[in-house]
Amino acid sequence: MTITIKKCALNDVQTLQAISTDTFRETFQEQNSPEHLNAYLKKAYNLNQLTQEIANPCSQFYFIYFNQELAGYLKINTDEAQSEKMDNDSLEVERIYVKKKFQKLGLGKLLINKAMEIALEQQKKKIWLGVWEDNKNAISFYRKKGFIQTGSHSFFMGDDEQVDLILTKTL
């Protein structure tokens, strides 16, 4: 078993788009209408949007491979790239997704550990993320990693307003 984490570059944008749409659809298609899901995917994961995100120096993407097969990815943000107004001593985990067939293998733990490692390298004091209030498995995972709820915000799946819990961990 070989697990590799690789930082994404601009030339990875099409691969990033594919893993982003695949994992988001796998994670949320059963709880959302096809119309809302497709509207969100078109907005969040089109090539222009992802190219801008990869090019932003305050955002970083990482792929995780399991036996050379792309299994998931991570997106982190600092400073003005954070999706909520936070202190400059905070790092946001905006996206962390693992394909269903690779779940329960510890890959999510490796990705969140990678985010914490980067936060410490950048001398951040907090790491935070938003997680859908109905994603009980993810909430349980983050709580086991020491995250606590510090707030909430609206998240729009198409025009369907949903609630994300803000979970924070002090480093």
UniProtKB/TrEMBL annotation:
The keyword Membrane does not apply. Keywords: Acyltransferase, Transferase. It comes from the Bacteria. Gene3D superfamilies: 3.40.630.30. Residues 3-171 form the N-acetyltransferase domain. InterPro entries: Acyl_CoA_acyltransferase (IPR016181), GNAT_dom (IPR000182), YpeA/RimI_acetyltransf (IPR050680). This is Spermidine/spermine N(1)-acetyltransferase. It comes from Saccharibacillus kuerlensis.
